[in-house]
Design a protein that fits this description.
The complex is a heterodimer.
Chain A: E1 4-10, E2 18-24, E3 28-32, E4 38-42, E5 46-51, E6 57-62, E7 69-73, H1 77-84, H2 94-127, H3 130-143, H4 154-168, E8 178-182, E9 189-192, E10 196-200, H5 201-206, H6 210-225, H7 228-246, H8 264-280, H9 286-301, H10 304-308, H11 315-326, H12 337-344
Parallel strand pairs in A: 8-10
Antiparallel strand pairs in A: 1-2, 1-7, 2-3, 3-4, 5-6, 6-7, 9-10
Chain B: E1 27-28, H1 32-48, H2 54-67, E2 69-71, E3 74-78, H3 82-112, H4 116-147, E4 149-151, E5 154-158, H5 162-178, H6 184-196, E6 199-201, E7 204-208, H7 213-252, H8 256-267, H9 271-301, E8 302-304, E9 307-311, H10 315-332, H11 337-351, E10 352-355, H12 376-381
Antiparallel strand pairs in B: 1-2, 2-3, 3-4, 4-5, 5-6, 6-7, 7-8, 8-9, 9-10
The chains are: A alpha+beta, B alpha+beta.
Chain lengths: ~375, ~375
C-alpha cells in the first residue's frame, strides 16, 4: 500500500494552493513543500472533511482556528489512511447500523414513555399549586364557545349555592368547587381545571327534576375530585412540547376545547365518584341514570348525533353501569319545588327558548 | 525519521485540461441513504432531548451536504456548529421573541380593558416589528451560513445590512400588495441584487445585475391566470354568502320549496370556487416556466472575479423535477425527504454552468468579522 501521495496545501490565506508531497507516517501526515521544508500534521490535529467515493481523493481540515486545508490525491489514498491512521478509519456501514439501533431505541423509548407517562403526569399534577390550576381553568372556560353569559338571578344563585354545598361538604375535593350557570341552549356541563364547573342553562331547562341536575353536577364534581381537567391539560402540553420540538407546529390545533373531552375511563370514573358523592350527601342518586336514559332516547331520535359521540362510552352503557352502582339506595332531596323553580329561573324564563333547545354534546 | 525520497521529480497524476469550448460544472456525490441515516439518528436525539438536538441535526445535515459538493474537485466545507445555532436561538428567544410577545399580550390586555386606541397602536407596532424582523431573519440566516461555508480554506461571507435588506423587503412587500403581485419579477430581481452583490468568497466578490423586464413578459401569463383565478374565487365566495343569506330569508318566511332549492344549490360542490381553484392550479403550473427563467436570469446576471455563469433550466424540466419529488414524498409518507434533498443538489449540478476560472492567487482570506451565533431570528420567524 502506497504511503506517498501528491497533495495541495491551502494555507488559509489564499485560494491558490501549493503542491506538496504527503507521506503517511507513524505520527501523522508529513508534508514536503517545493522548497524542501517539511511539516508534520499530527493525526489528532486534523479531520477528514471529505472523501470522494472512489477513495482516490480526500480533503483534510486542520482543527481549531486554523484555516489550513490539505487535499490529498492518489490511487487508494482513503484506504491507506484506514490502514495507517486508525483514528481516521472509515466507519463503514456505521450510519446504517446506527439507524437500525436508533429505530429500536425509539420504539423502546416510546414504549417506556407509554408506561411511565401516567406516573409522571400524576406527579406533576400533585405539585401544581391550586392558584395556577384556577388561573388555567379560567382561561379554559373563557375559550369554550357558548360560555361567558353567566346567570345571576339571586334566588337561583342561592339554590345553586346550597346544592353545591350539600354535595361538596363530604365530597373530599382537592379544591373549592366554583359552580356557575351560563346562559346557553346547549345541554351540557363541564369541569375545568381548579375546581371550576360550568352548567349550561340548557341542561337545567331540559331537566325534568332537580335530581337530574344534582346528578350531573355530582358527575362534574367527580371530574374535579380526580383533577381530570388538569391531567388533560398536561397531556396537551406534553403533545405540544414533543411536536414543537420536532418542528411540526401543532400550535393551538385542537385548542383548549380538547381539555374538556375526557376519555372513556375518565367518564366512568366521574360517574362512579358522582354516585358516591350523591350518596354521601344523602341525595337521590338515580337522577344521573334518568338523565342518561332521556338523552339516549333523544339521541335515538336524532341518529346524526350518534357517530359524533361514538368515542364516548355509550349512554346505554353508562346508564346501566350507574344504575348498578345506585342499587337499591334511596335518597332524599333536601330541596322544595319552589327551590327547583328558582334554579330553573336562574337565567330568566326557562320556557323562553325551551322549544328550540338544541342538544349538543351531552354531559362530559 | 527516515530521510525523504526525492519526490518532485515523479510524474503527477494527469490533470485533465479544462476544455476550452465547454463550460465547467460543479460536482456532487451525496447519497440519499447516508443522509437518511443522519436524519433518523437526529430525529431520535431530537425527540429524547425535547427538541434541543434539532440545532445539531441541521448542522449534521449541512456538513454532509456541503462536503459532498465540489468545485474543481475540491469540496465545500461547513464549519458551523449546533451550539452556535442553539445559542443564537436562546438569544433571540430572550431579546426578541419574549419582548414582542409581551407587547402583543399588552396590546390585547389594553383593548380588553377599554383602552382600544393605545392597544390598537401597540398591536400595529407589533405587526410592523414582526414584518421588519421577517426580512432580517432571511438575511441573517444567509449571513451565518455563508460565514460558515469554506472552500479551499477560504471563508464565504455576506456583507450589507440585514436591516437594509429587511426594510427593502418590507417596502417591496407593500409594493406587491399595491400592484396585486404584478411587481413580482421587479421585486425579486431587486432583492437578489441587494443580496447577491454582497456575497463574497474571501476577498472575491460576486456581482449581479439583471434586467427584470424580460422576466416580466414571462410572468404575465401566470400573473394574469392568478388574477383571473382569485377574481373567480372571490366572486364564488360572495355568491355563496348571498345564497346563504337568501336561505335564511326563505327559512324565516317558511318558504320550504325555495329553501330546498337553495340547499340543493349549496350542496353541489361550489361551482365557481372549484373553477377558481382550478384556474389557480393552472397558473401555478405556468409559474414553473417563470421560476426556471428567473434562475437562468440570476445565473446569467452573476459573475465572480472574471468568471461568468449560465443555466439551462427549463420550465418543463423544473416541473418534472418537482412532480417527481412530490410523488416520492407522497408514496413514502415523507421518508424520501433525504433523497429529495440530494435531488436538489444534483439539480444544481445539472443546471449551473461555469465559464472561465478566477485567478486563485488573488482570492485571499476574508477579513470580515463573522457572526458569532446563528440563525436565531430565522428560527423564530421562518
Amino acid at each position: 500500500m502506497a504511503r506517498q501521495f501528491s497533495g495541495t496545501l491551502y494555507d488559509g490565506q489564499s485560494a491558490a494552493g501549493i503542491d506538496v508531497m504527503v507521506e503517511i507516517v507513524s505520527v501523522g501526515l508529513m508534508l514536503t513543500k517545493p522548497d524542501g521544508s517539511t511539516d508534520i500534521w499530527p493525526y489528532d490535529s486534523f479531520t477528514v472533511m471529505s472523501a470522494k467515493r472512489d477513495g482516490n481523493r480526500i480533503a483534510v481540515s486542520r482543527v481549531g482556528a486554523s484555516d489550513e486545508r490539505l487535499t490529498i490525491a492518489g490511487s487508494g489514498v482513503r484506504d491507506a489512511l484506514d490502514i495507517y491512521a486508525p483514528q481516521h478509519r472509515r466507519k463503514s456501514g456505521r450510519d446504517t447500523k446506527q439507524a437500525i439501533l436508533v429505530s429500536l431505541a425509539i420504539i423502546a423509548t416510546l414504549a417506556g414513555l407509554y408506561f411511565a407517562y401516567p406516573v409522571l403526569k400524576n406527579a406533576v399534577v400533585a405539585v401544581i399549586p391550586e392558584s395556577w390550576a384556577v388561573a388555567w381553568g379560567e382561561a379554559v372556560v373563557d375559550s369554550v364557545p357558548g360560555t361567558g353569559d353567566t346567570c345571576d338571578d339571586p334566588a337561583g344563585m342561592a339554590v345553586l349555592q346550597r346544592l353545591t354545598e350539600a354535595l361538596t361538604v363530604n365530597a373530599d375535593l382537592p379544591y373549592d368547587a366554583r359552580v356557575r350557570v351560563d346562559k346557553s341552549r346547549t345541554v351540557n356541563a363541564f369541569a375545568a381545571p381548579g375546581g371550576q364547573v360550568v352548567l349550561l342553562s340548557g341542561l337545567i331547562t331540559d331537566a325534568e327534576t332537580m335530581d337530574e341536575v344534582a346528578g350531573v353536577l355530582a358527575h362534574e364534581l367527580g371530574h374535579v375530585r380526580h383533577k381530570h381537567a388538569l391531567k388533560r391539560l398536561i397531556d396537551i402540553f406534553g403533545i405540544q412540547i414533543v411536536f414543537s420540538g420536532i418542528g411540526g407546529d401543532l400550535g393551538t390545533a385542537g385548542g383548549l376545547i380538547m381539555v374538556l373531552s375526557y376519555g372513556r375511563d375518565d367518564e366512568r370514573e366521574a360517574d362512579e365518584t358522582g354516585i358516591e358523592i350523591l350518596k354521601k350527601a344523602g341525595m337521590p342518586a338515580d337522577g344521573l341514570v334518568r338523565f342518561f336514559d332521556r338523552l339516549a332516547t333523544k339521541r335515538a331520535e336524532m341518529p346524526n348525533f350518534s357517530d359524533f359521540l361514538s368515542t364516548h362510552p355509550s349512554l346505554n352503557e353508562r346508564s346501566m353501569a350507574t344504575r348498578a352502582m345506585v342499587g337499591d339506595y334511596v335518597g332524599k332531596m333536601p330541596f322544595s319545588e319552589e327551590d327547583w323553580q328558582a334554579l330553573r329561573w336562574i337565567c330568566g324564563d326557562p320556557d323562553a327558548d325551551n322549544e328550540e333547545a338544541e342538544e349538543a354534546e351531552g354531559t362530559e | 525519521m527516515d530521510k525523504m525520497e526525492p519526490y518532485f521529480g515523479q510524474p503527477r497524476e494527469p490533470v485533465p485540461a479544462p476544455e476550452a469550448s465547454g463550460p465547467e460544472k460543479l460536482d456532487c456525490d451525496a447519497d440519499g441513504g447516508e443522509l437518511f441515516g443522519i436524519h433518523v439518528i437526529s430525529l431520535f436525539l431530537t425527540i429524547i432531548t425535547l427538541g434541543i438536538y434539532r440545532f445539531w441535526w441541521k448542522t449534521r445535515v449541512r456538513r454532509y451536504m456541503w462536503s459532498h459538493f465540489r468545485y474543481k474537485d475540491d469540496a465545500f466545507e461547513y464549519t458551523g456548529t449546533g451550539l452556535e445555532l442553539f445559542v443564537g436561538f436562546v438569544i433571540v428567544l430572550f431579546l426578541v421573541v419574549l419582548p414582542i410577545t409581551g407587547l402583543n399580550i399588552a396590546a390585547f390586555w389594553l383593548m380588553e380593558n377599554g383602552n382600544e386606541v393605545l392597544g390598537g397602536l401597540i398591536l400595529g407596532l407589533f405587526y410592523i416589528i414582526v414584518a421588519v424582523l421577517f426580512g432580517a431573519a432571511i438575511y441573517r440566516a444567509l449571513m451565518y451560513r455563508l460565514s460558515r461555508t469554506l472552500w479551499r480554506g477560504i471563508r464565504g461571507g455576506l456583507t450589507g445590512s440585514s436591516f437594509g435588506y429587511s426594510f427593502r423587503y418590507f417596502g417591496y412587500t407593500l409594493l406587491q400588495i399595491v400592484t396585486l403581485w404584478l411587481a413580482t419579477p421587479y421585486v425579486t430581481i431587486k432583492l437578489f441584487e441587494y443580496q447577491l452583490n454582497n456575497v463574497w468568497l474571501g476577498s472575491g466578490r460576486l456581482q449581479f445585475h439583471a434586467d427584470w423586464r424580460p422576466l416580466f413578459k414571462i410572468y404575465l401569463l401566470p400573473g394574469i391566470i392568478f388574477g383571473i383565478g382569485f377574481a373567480v374565487l372571490i366572486f364564488g365566495y360572495v355568491d355563496m354568502l348571498m345564497t346563504q343569506m337568501e336561505l335564511t330569508e326563505a327559512l324565516e318566511a317558511d318558504n320550504q320549496e325555495r329553501a330546498d332549492e337553495l340547499l340543493q344549490e349549496m350542496a353541489s360542490p361550489g361551482g365557481l370556487i372549484a373553477l377558481g381553484l382550478l384556474v389557480l392550479f393552472v397558473g401555478w403550473i405556468a409559474l414553473f416556466w417563470y421560476n426556471a427563467a428567473l434562475y437562468r436570469t440570476i445565473l446569467a446576471g452573476s459573475s465572480f472575479e472574471g468568471v461568468a455563469f449560465s443555466g439551462k433550466l427549463t420550465g418543463g424540466r423544473f416541473l418534472k423535477f418537482h412532480l417527481f419529488n412530490w410523488f416520492i414524498l407522497a408514496v413514502t409518507g415523507g421518508i424520501a425527504y433525504p433523497w429529495v434533498q440530494v435531488r436538489w443538489l444534483n439539480l444544481i449540478v445539472e443546471v449551473v454552468e461555469i465559464h472561465g476560472e478566477p485567478d486563485f492567487t488573488k482570492i485571499a482570506q476574508s477579513t470580515e468579522d463573522m457572526p458569532k451565533f446563528g440563525e436565531g431570528l430565522a428560527e423564530a420567524f421562518l
